[in-house]
Each structure stands twice: as structure tokens, then as C-alpha cells.
Amino acid sequence: MNTAMTVIVLLVCSDVIYMIQGRAIQDPRCRCPKVHAGRVNIRLIRKLTYYPPRSHCSKEEVIVTLETRDPLCLDPNGNFAKTLIERQIKV
């Protein structure tokens, strides 16, 4: 009886691990489902993060973290985002 219970527990654990690994492969996607096309007050920007196209997201992404710690996705093709990226790279 102990052997049967051990086998069942091992099978359940292996199934859980398999499902978790499968989900990790399927879930990665772009971080920005929609983008903000306008300008943002530069004084409110705490951090700028640029993500080039990756294997799980074919788009460029520009994310600013505001002083309120809220993330905001900017349009990477917009003039405002391009200017922010250029200024960050030059620094």
C-alpha cells in the first residue's frame, strides 16, 4: 500500500511540474497590450525601460515607470519615446 501511494504522489507531482513548465513556455508575451501615444511630464518619469523585439514579442516596447510607480507603455515609434530613448543612450 505504501508503494502504491508513493507512486501516485510522484505521478501527481510530475504532472504538476509538467503543467507549470508548459505554461511558462506558452504565457510569455508582450508587456504592453496597448500604448500611450501622447507625451508624459518628464518630471513624473522615475524609470525608462526599453525592450527590443524578442522571441516571444515581435514588437519594440518602451515602458516608463511614473513617480506613482505605475507603469505606462509609450508608442516606440512616437517622437516622445524616441527622444527619451536617445537621451537615455547618450547618458
How are the SSEs placed, and which strands pair?
Layout: H1 2-26, E1 45-51, E2 61-66, E3 71-74, H2 79-90
Antiparallel strand pairs: 1-2, 2-3
Verbal overview:
By secondary structure, the protein is an alpha+beta fold. The protein folds into two domains: 1-28; 31-91, OB fold (Dihydrolipoamide Acetyltransferase, E2P) (Beta Barrel), CATH 2.40.50.40. It is 41% helix and 19% strand. It is built from two helices and three strands. The chain has helices spanning 2-26, 79-90; strands spanning 45-51, 61-66, 71-74. Strands 1-2-3 form a three-stranded antiparallel beta sheet, covered by helices on one side. The protein is elongated, with a radius of gyration of 21 Å. The model has no long low-confidence stretch (mean pLDDT 83). Pfam families: IL8. One of its GO terms (biological process) is immune response. Residues 1-22 form the signal peptide. Keywords: Cytokine, Signal.
What can be said about the biggest beta sheet?
3 strands, antiparallel
The strand count comes to 3
Instruction: Report the CATH C-level class of the largest domain.
Output: Mainly Beta
Could you say which structural class the secondary elements and strand pairing correspond to? alpha+beta
Q: Which range best describes the helical content: under 10%, 10-25%, 25-40%, 40-55%, 55-70% or over 70%?
A: 40-55%
Note the beta-strand portion: 15-25%
Poorly predicted residue ranges: none
The residue-averaged pLDDT reads 83
The 3D shape can be described as elongated
CATH topology of the largest domain: OB fold (Dihydrolipoamide Acetyltransferase, E2P)
Number of helices: 2
Spatial ordering of strands, largest sheet: 1-2-3
User: Which architecture of the largest domain per CATH?
Assistant: Beta Barrel
GO molecular function: chemokine activity
Protein name: Chemokine interleukin-8-like domain-containing protein
Family: Belongs to the intercrine alpha (chemokine CxC) family.
GO biological process, one term: immune response
